[in-house]
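User: Can you help me understand a structure? I only have the sequence.
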Amino acid sequence: MRIDDASSTPWPARARLGVIGLGSMGEPMAGHLLAAHGALVIHSRGRRESLIEAGAIWADTPRELAEQVDAVLVMLPDLPQLASMLEGPDSLLAAGTELRCS
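Assistant: Let's start by predicting it. Here is the structure, written out as tokens:
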């Protein structure tokens, strides 16, 4: 798929969602997504027990998360943190994740 075709790509009615980065912005967003969607896979530097207790599924690596979802929301503070999620054998790219940025 070409990038310019992305807007015409239909998403499944119940797309499986994942969130990486559960800091001051990511954790509340993940909580709202979980409440609205009912299912969510999460990954961050540290486990967020409150989200797991609310029903989120913990993924040990970005790759593990990407292999379980249709779309990933990444909420990270800077490029070094993003690079660590994109590079290496346990990364998003290792899972074959298609990137769309905004």
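Now, to help you interpret it: The beta strands are 17-20, 41-43, 57-58, 71-74. The two ends are 17 Å apart (CA to CA). Let me know which part you'd like to focus on.
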